[in-house]
Design a protein that fits this description.
By secondary structure, this protein is an alpha+beta fold. It is 12% helix and 21% strand.
């Protein structure tokens, strides 16, 4: 497994002018690290989706295979091979049929650095998998490997083979000029 991480870079960028002064509903397990994804950064669209006001990315509250009941995600996240994850993205949800697998930078915007297991805002993404989640970004260094985000630790890596099974979180839209690397 390769070990190139985005986590520390994002922490340094956050300290330069991030969300530290905002009211946070995120329950941080490490209070020495400021939360970067407060509830206030997301708009609940009332249809099982949320929109990140900073990136304009619309996310499903739940990983694929789970069901939004209006308050939480129920069921279990389904795992997919990477090519099947790409195909899963074509399904319709909440009146939209342009869902897609996020690239690694978009997926990494969900990481909540002050938490682990899972390392994301669980008020916005309840019962999210504390697991490796696929991105759409293949690597150029090794054939048949893909970038992913491990929501157990909050780190991003490459090196997962495309036949490996992992959960999927789908996205749509976005701001093409957004700095997803935060």
């Amino acid at each position: 497994m390769k070990n190139l991480t985005l986590r520390n870079t994002a922490t340094l960028l956050l300290l330069g002018g991030g969300l530290a002064g905002q009211a946070l509903a995120v329950s941080c397990t490490d209070t020495t690290i400021p939360a970067r994804n407060p509830d206030a950064a997301y708009t609940d669209n009332g249809d099982g989706t949320v929109t990140d006001s900073r990136t304009q990315l619309m996310w499903k509250h739940c990983a694929e295979g789970m069901t939004w009941d209006g308050a939480t995600c129920t069921g279990s996240a389904q795992s997919f091979k990477w090519t099947d994850a790409l195909a899963q993205a074509g399904t319709a949800y909440a009146g939209n049929n342009d869902w897609r697998l996020p690239n690694v930078k978009e997926l990494f915007t969900l990481v909540e650095e002050c938490r682990t297991k899972p390392a994301l805002n669980t008020a916005v993404f309840p019962n999210a998998p504390s697991a490796i989640v696929w991105s759409s970004t293949p690597t150029y260094l090794e054939q048949n490997t893909v970038w992913y985000v491990d929501f157990s630790t909050g780190y991003s890596f490459y090196g997962q083979g495309r036949a490996t099974l992992h959960p999927v979180m789908l996205v749509r839209g976005g701001n093409s000029g957004a700095n997803y690397g935060r």
